[in-house]
Design goal:
CATH architecture of the largest domain: 3-Layer(aba) Sandwich
Helix content: 25-40%
CATH superfamily of the largest domain: Zn peptidases
Largest sheet: 9 strands, mixed
CATH class of the largest domain: Alpha Beta
Number of strands: 18
Low-confidence stretches: none
Number of domains: 2
Structural class: alpha/beta
Radius of gyration: 24 Å
Bound molecules: ligand BES, zinc ion
CATH topology of the largest domain: Aminopeptidase
Mean pLDDT: 96
Length: about 500
């Protein structure tokens, strides 16, 4: 575990074994650095020159200290050049923080003191800079180690990170908020990284129930029999091929103010997507335990907001199911009827996410009449191909809600990019024998967008944003605050920011 604290004491007086410094580009040797060098490494200036350390982004210089009572290493980390885009400075800083955590871990540091950089560069206040630092550090330290029996493979990062600043009130508050968001994000990652035979629909429902109980949220769950009886033909149809019960889980957070807006979050929870009878080829199936990343993000968000208490009401709805082939499975050609009465022809059982979301969206509209609704889903390979691993696809025809989500995305680091969501694509999902078809016709091609238009049939006139995280939920490379393999917990930071700043 990484613990994060704050201290007002000057950095040189910290009782830490590692002192770390963020260094602006081309300004590696400040006044403060001179006195530091005097105490710990008199030849520091020359060392920096010899090693050509200029403060480039993510560049690292580790300097061992000898003869000091407790300081063993100094770490210098470049902040790089200032970017014209204000949000990019914050994102670059997150990567720097990730690099710091990894560097400190590599030298086995136990206590690392680092002075927070000046807030000016980042366009946020001190509270938020401390929050981003602590949150990012905790994301960087995440590792899924449930199944490593060899201690040598125990990559858990464990040390204390002391954020040095003289305004301890703002920094302490920032760290506190970060703890809540990081714990939630890492919890989502843990579920996603867990094997599909562990993170099953009943397991996730039980996890959600535990959270609801602990943090006093309203919790409702429907099992497969009830799902069938309620007329949720999409969820039931997807689950039919599996021996495990599907679950439809609802969690509610009430802020205490009746007039406050209600926001519905809907997360795709396919705990394993084999494709069903339209079975996936082996290599496309490999990572399909991640197909519940939307549900994981939504449930984890509820844990965070139950503690942070935004001034909005929030309802989370997650249809949880496996998508497996069997003698009972839904067949291509079958027609399913959803909770709102509409029907869809299933031409491909691998386009199952939209089928379970259709029921959940319909249910949210009917029972909660939300002021805004956002769904999050590992919905299409097409989206992953279009945008790659760094941006979540955003689809919406509601300008105001899109703007809100886009701003929260920029601030939080869970970045989104809008895809054209124009009515021109609508006819792609026409069917000759049912209301709609679950795959877009070939000539329209844009698979991420046509999937979005399928979902549109179930949102009525509720302001709605669809987020496709197929590319961003799992195996995101190059970002030092993630692991190159495994879950990112995308969506949690975004939702918490959105709800807190509604
Ligand atoms: N879960 C997949 C989408 C996916 C693909 C997520 C890659 C993450 C990485 C989804 O259920 C799916 O299989 N979609 C199909 C839809 C197609 C049959 C219309 C796809 O994208 O190929
Ligand atoms: Zn699928
Ligand atoms: Zn899927």
């Amino acid at each position: 575990m990484l613990t994060i604290t704050t201290s007002k004491k000057a950095i040189a007086e910290q009782s830490a074994d590692c002192l770390a410094f963020f260094v602006e580009k081309d300004a590696p040797f400040s006044k403060e650095m001179q006195s530091m060098a005097h105490t710990f490494f008199p030849d520091l200036h020359n060392l920096m020159k010899d090693r050509e350390f200029k403060g480039d982004a993510k560049s690292v210089l580790i300097v061992p200290v000898s003869g000091h009572a407790h300081v063993k290493n100094l770490i210098f980390i470049g902040l790089g050049e200032k970017d014209a885009d204000k949000y990019m400075n914050l994102e670059a800083y997150r990567r720097v923080v990730g690099t710091l955590v990894r560097s400190a871990d590599r030298i086995n540091a136990k206590k690392v003191a680092v002075e927070l950089p000046a807030v000016k560069r980042f366009g946020v206040d001190l509270h938020d800079l401390a929050k981003e630092t602590a949150l990012t550090a905790k994301l960087s330290a995440y590792y899924f180690h449930d199944f490593h029996s060899d201690k040598k493979h125990h990559y858990t990062i464990e040390f204390e990170l002391i954020l040095v600043h003289d305004d301890s009130k703002a920094v302490t508050a920032g760290i506190k908020e970060a703890d809540v968001i990081a714990d939630a994000t890492n919890l989502a990652r843990h579920w996603i990284d867990s094997p599909p035979s562990v993170a099953t629909p009943p397991h996730l429902a039980a996890e959600a129930k535990k959270i609801a109980k602990k943090y006093d949220l309203k919790y409702t769950v429907f099992n497969e029999k009830q799902v069938n009886e309620m007329g949720m033909g999409g969820l039931a149809g997807v689950s039919r091929g599996s021996d495990r019960d599907c679950q439809f889980v609802i969690m509610e957070y009430h802020c205490g103010k009746k007039t406050a807006p209600t926001i519905a979050l809907v997360g795709k929870g396919i705990t394993f997507d084999s494709g069903g009878l339209s079975i996936k080829p082996a290599d496309s199936m490999e990572a399909m335990k991640d197909d519940m990343s939307g549900a994981a993000a939504v449930i984890a968000t509820m844990q965070a907001i139950a503690q942070l208490k935004p001034k909005v009401n929030v309802v989370a709805l997650t249809p949880l199911s496996e998508n497996l082939p069997s003698g009972k499975a839904t067949m291509p050609g079958d027609i399913l009827r959803f909770y709102n009465g509409k029907t869809a022809e299933v031409k491909n059982t691998d386009a199952e996410g939209r089928l379970v979301l259709a029921d959940a969206l319909s249910y949210a509209v009917k029972h909660y009449k939300p002021d805004a609704m956002i769904d999050i889903a590992t919905l299409t390979g097409a989206c992953a191909y279009a945008l790659g691993p760094f941006f979540t696809g955003l689809m919406s025809q509601d300008k105001e809600l899109s703007k809100k989500v886009q701003e929260a995305a920029e601030r939080s680091g869970d970045r989104v990019w809008p895809l054209p969501f124009h009515d021109d694509y609508k006819p792609a999902i026409k069917s000759t024998i049912a209301d709609i078809c679950n795959i877009g016709s070939r000539t329209y091609r844009a698979g991420a967008i046509t999937a979005g238009f399928f979902l549109q049939n179930f949102v009525d006139d509720v302001p709605w944003v669809h987020l496709d995280i197929a590319g961003t939920a799992f195996d995101v490379p190059d970002l030092p605050y993630y692991r190159p393999a495994g879950a990112t917990g995308v969506g949690v930071r975004l939702f918490v920011d959105l709800l807190m700043n509604w």
